[in-house]
Protein 1
Amino acid sequence: MTVVLRTDSDNYVHQLWAQDQAATCAVASIWMARNQAKQSTATEDEWSLAWRLYNRVVLNCPSDLIPFPPAPRTFNASSFANDEKTFANKFSNFGTFMQQVIDALKLDGLKVNSSTAFSKGTQIDKSKLSDTTPAIVLLGWYNGAKRNGGHFIVASRVTSKGSIVYLDPWGGQLSEAGTGPQYQTTGVFEQVTYISR
């Protein structure tokens, strides 16, 4: 995990988690949104947080029974199945669903104020964002009508000019844009979960 600081157009400093593993955008987005909602910084590494999410949310293991994580490593996606049967499968190429993100947020003591249904073309409701109430956005990468995978980002806050600040764990990018549904060139918002502490 690499944490970088980025400043938005209002000179508000954001902590962004630049993901190291390809399928950990949900883990990174949970970390960024949780820190913003709680107005604090949790010091934990990508591997440990992903291990805890997998055991608590996918396997439904009580926190006190979660084994110590194995040593960190990078997964080659072509070497693992596209399913959740193992930790390596999930974080090499399978990814995370929004309901798993919601469950992880609740287990971390956060409130899920609302979540939209999964629908291509969903937009952000600016009135639900503030310095302590971010949203986690699931977007799909599209080539025409064909979905080529998904990605999680954080809709952090609304600037004084009315733009939304987006925190993207892929490379630790900060961008400012409208309410969606388009993101970058081929991304389309599909589901939004609004949170608070």
Note: The first helix runs from residue 25 to 38.
Protein 2
Amino acid sequence: MRKVRAVDEKGVFRPLEAVSLPENCEVEFEPQVVTSHCEGKPFDGVYTVLAERYESGETDVAARHDEHQP
């Protein structure tokens, strides 16, 4: 069987791609940490961009949401 990459989310290993195993089958594996995925949080960049947009001073974005819709 090929190597499967997974992410630990609150104690549950979630595969990063589809895995062809029967539902609820038990597997055994030896975790090997991939350092590039463990450094920092995966959404830090997204939150930084969202924070900049939130503090942009543009206050009526939601009010003007449908302004250009036909």
Note: The mean pLDDT is 80.
